[in-house]
Structures are given as C-alpha cells and as structure tokens.
Amino acid sequence: MRRLLWLTLALLWPPALDAAPEVSLTPFVEGLEDPVYLTHDGSPRLYAVEQAGRVRVVERGRVLPTAFLDIRPRVASGGEMGLLSIAFHPDYAANGRFFVNYTARKEGQLRTIIAEYRRDQAEPRRADPQERVLLEIVQPFDNHNGG
Fold first, then answer.
1. Rounded to whole angstroms, how far apart are CA atoms 64 and 69?
2. How confident is the model at residue 70 (pLDDT cuts 50, 70, 90)?
3. C-alpha 110: how far from chain center
4. CB neighbours of 98 closer than 8 A, spacing ≥ 6?
5. Which one of 58, 75, 86, 99 has the minimum C-beta count within 10 Å?
C-alpha cells in the first residue's frame, strides 16, 4: 500500500517547481470584522463568523446590516478564542436548527461551548437568541480551543 501511495504521488507531482501556476486572491466582500469562518445553509446565502461573536449574512456580495446572530456578550474573544464556527443542520431549510462553537468565561474558567440555536420564525435572516447549550468543556489555556 505504501509503494502504491508513493507511486501515485510521483505521477501526480508537478515536474518542476518553476512550472507552478500563479496564485492571486481577490476579495469578494467587505465589511466584516475579524472573520474566522465562512459557510452556507444550502441556499445561495453565505454566513460569515466574526471572532467577537457575530454571524453575518452575505447576499449578492454584500454584508447585510443586521447580524444573523449576535452573542458578543457571551463570548470571550481574542487570540485563539471567540466565536469559532457554525454548522447548519442537514435539514436546516425545514427545521431552522444550527450549532455554534465559542469560548466563554464562566465562574472564572475558560470554557468551550457547543450550543444549538434556531432560525427566527418571523425573520429567516435572523436567529432566535435563545441558546441551548449541548456541551461545555473547561479549557486550561487561552489557546488551542479551535472549533
């Protein structure tokens, strides 16, 4: 198996480093503060996670003025801490459920929180702020708490 892997790598490896293609980056949206993650809910709408504790909606290349979710008072952010990720339920279109991973300080301890939220019934571009904590993990350090 190891020989097969090396043979495959040798066949796929570019012949020379100077033949590598040029790479360039083009910004596609402005107006986000410390974005750490970008995803979608199965629709053309994009969701940008901001480290301080907001999830912003991006539609047609523009950040909507109102945040989808704003939990900044709950989030301990900075360095490797903050609101780090969002995941939409596979049936989000029908049930409106999604999950977030963030760091918080509770009772003097840093904790990783995994929580469930739901889309607001009246305004689908907003989340209901009611949180259901699914998992809490005490963290001994301010770093390596990624989600």
1. 12
2. very high
3. 20
4. 41, 86, 87, 88, 89, 92, 116, 117, 118, 119, 127
5. 99
